[in-house]
Amino acid sequence: MTKKELRKTYKTRRQELTEHQIEDYSIAIANQLxxxxxxxxxxxxxxxxxEEQKEVNTDYILNILSGKDKNIVISKSDFKTNTLTHFLLxxxxxxxxxxxxxPEPIDGIEISTNKIDVVFIPLLAFDKQGNRVGYGKGFYDxxxxxxxxxxxxIGLSFFEAVDEINDVFDRDIGLDYCVIPFExxxxx
Length: 188
Fold this sequence. Notes:
24% strand; Rossmann fold; two-stranded antiparallel ribbon; seven-stranded mixed sheet; single chain
C-alpha cells in the first residue's frame, strides 16, 4: 500500500478504538518499552499525545522517564517551515495546545538535536522493514535527519506491521524499533 492509502486506513482504524482500548494498549506499550536496552541514556525525546487523533497515550512513558530521572525533551512545531524546536520538560514548563490540538511547550530551555539519545515517534503505520507513515508533513523526517546516527528511533503503534510501504523515499528515516501492545519489532 502507499503512504496515502495507509494514512487513510490507519486514521480510520484509530478512530474506531475506544478510550478503554487506548488506555490498555498504551499501558501495554509502556510496559514493553521497559524490556528494551534503552535505559542507560540521558536525553529522551517524546511526543505529547494528541487526544483528538487517538494517539498512543505517552503519559505512562513520561512517568517511567521521570521515575528513572531522565532528561525529557518535547517539541514545538513550526507549521511555516515544518520543523520542530526541542525543549527540556521541567516542572516549570507550560504546555498549551496549538491550532492542531498538539500539546506543546510555550517556551523553555532549548535542547540541541545532537544531545538527544532516544526518540519515541508517533506514527500511523509501519512496515516489516522499519519504514513508517506519519501524518505526511515531514516534521519527523527533518528532525530525525538532524539527529546523531546512533540516536535510537522507536515508533509507537497500536497496530501490527504491514508487509511493505510501496512509496518509501531515500530521505525517509526508518526505525530501530517499533513497539505495539504485545510485541516489539527490531530493525537494527
